[in-house]
Design brief:
mainly alpha; Ferritin; globular
Length: 206
C-alpha cells in the first residue's frame, strides 16, 4: 500500500471538489495560510518536546518534524516573495481548534489525543497537496508534490507514537476508538461549508 493509499484509508472523507475549486481561485491566500500552517506544525512539535521530556521516541521524532516544518515554512515564504505575495495576518481556520476541543484533560490520554489529532492534520495536509498538484502551475505543483513524502512520514510518526504511548500504559487505551472520535469531527469540519477559505477549511459557502 502506498503512502497516499494509506492516508486515504485513514481519512474519514475526501476533500470536496468545491474546496479544490476555491484553492485554485485563491492561490495567494492558499500560500499565506500554508505558511501559517507550517509555523503552527513546528510549534506543536516543539511544545510536545518541552512538555514530554521523558518520551525519547517522541523527542527524536518531534525534533525532526519541527525542523522539516520550519524548512517547509522557509520554502513557502520564498515562493511568496518570488510571486510578490504580501505575508498578511490571517485569522486561523477553526479546523485545528475544533479538533483540540476533543483532547482529554488527563494523562496519558491527553498526549494520545494530541498525537491522534496531529496524525489527522498531517494526513489531510498530504491529501490536499496531492489533489491540488495537478491543478497548479509547474513550480507550485512540483513543490507540493515534493512535500508528500515528509508529510506522509509525519502522519505515520504521530500515529505510531500514539500507539506506543497507549501500549506503555498500565491500563489498556483503545487508540482506534480515539481515532474514530476525532475522525468523525474531522469529517464534519472538512465537509461543512465555511465563510472563509483556508488550507484546512471546508468548502466555501455558496
Amino acid at each position: 500500500m502506498s503512502d497516499l493509499d494509506e492516508i486515504a484509508a485513514f481519512l474519514p472523507c475526501v476533500t470536496p471538489g468545491a474546496w479544490i475549486e476555491a484553492a485554485i481561485q485563491h492561490q495567494n491566500l492558499l500560500l499565506i495560510d500554508h505558511a501559517n500552517c507550517e509555523k503552527k506544525a513546528a510549534s506543536t512539535a516543539l511544545n510536545l518536546m518541552f512538555r514530554y521530556i521523558e518520551q525519547y521516541q517522541l523527542l527524536h521524532k518531534m525534533s525532526r518534524l519541527a525542523r522539516e516544518e520550519l524548512r517547509h515554512f522557509e520554502q513557502v515564504i520564498a515562493l511568496m516573495e518570488k510571486r510578490n505575495i504580501v505575508y498578511a495576518s490571517l485569522p486561523a481556520a477553526n479546523y485545528a481548534g475544533e479538533l483540540r476541543k476533543l483532547v482529554s484533560t488527563w494523562e496519558p490520554m491527553r498526549l494520545i489525543d494530541i498525537l491522534v489529532a496531529g496524525a489527522l492534520i498531517e494526513a489531510r495536509s498530504c491529501e490536499r497537496f496531492a489533489i491540488l498538484a495537478p491543478h497548479l502551475d509547474e513550480e507550485l505543483s512540483a513543490f507540493y508534490l515534493s512535500l508528500l513524502k515528509s508529510e506522509a512520514r509525519h502522519f505515520k510518526d504521530y500515529l505510531t507514537l500514539a500507539r506506543q504511548v497507549a501500549a506503555s500504559c498500565s491500563e489498556p487505551i483503545d487508540v482506534d476508538q480515539r481515532i474514530a472520535v476525532f475522525a468523525k469531527k474531522e469529517k464534519q469540519l472538512i465537509e461543512t461549508p465555511c465563510a472563509e477559505f483556508r488550507f484546512h477549511s471546508g468548502p466555501p459557502i455558496m
